[in-house]
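look at this one:
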Amino acid sequence: MNVERPRWRSLIARYSLSHLTESTMIGCDRLVQIFCLDPGLLVGLWKKEKELAFVMANLHLHQLVERSTLGSATIPYELPPHNAFEIDSTEYGLHGYQLHIDMHSTGVSYLCVTFRSFFTKKECIENGYVKLTVIHLKNDREHLPLIGKVGFFWKTNVFDGYIQSCSVMNVTLLDEFGKPFWCFSSPVGLRPAPSRPDCPNSLGQRYYVDYADVEGRVHMELMWFAKFEEYFVVSLEVYLHFTKINHWFGTHYQG
């Protein structure tokens, strides 16, 4: 006998679509334009009618089960309060980080890599952010290729398509104790970068990939090598807001 059970709903995020076209457009093809709404919502609009074509929510796996089951239909699940660690160190919260970054689109992976034990110094705190350099521009041995033709595949009941130079970026940053410190999943787009004196344009066209929220931001620099028909990540920087570090580690850094 089939028994109808009430469906439990847990609110994860709220979005307003009223000013969608004023948000960041990250790409388009001949049929649709795609926009990103924080946190992590990708919205496609038909170019001609400006009507909704599709919606894709990008949810990071960290505590997703709790967020999906322990909230209510009107109130999202609240993360338990974090108790700052008590360790006497002048460089506490500036070292021992581990970063996992994944760039993909509908089952196709362009980049999946983990960086361990990178750090920064107090001198790198400026404009409210702590700068962590993960891939150095001038160290060729650190540069990494993006595998395949980077783009976003979309499909509706009637049409499908492919938007170049877009993907979904998943980032998991762990602290020195292996605890998730900053996590997100969001659509991102490649945009042409201005020329710079320390990186001749003759090497290839350069592109930026950027993400930012209230806790931090990621800045990635890519270079297109026509010889290999591949993008290479030639620079990767993570910026963490100093208030996030102070709250997590109980430190008193100033930006």
User: Anything to note?
Assistant: The radius of gyration is 20 Å.
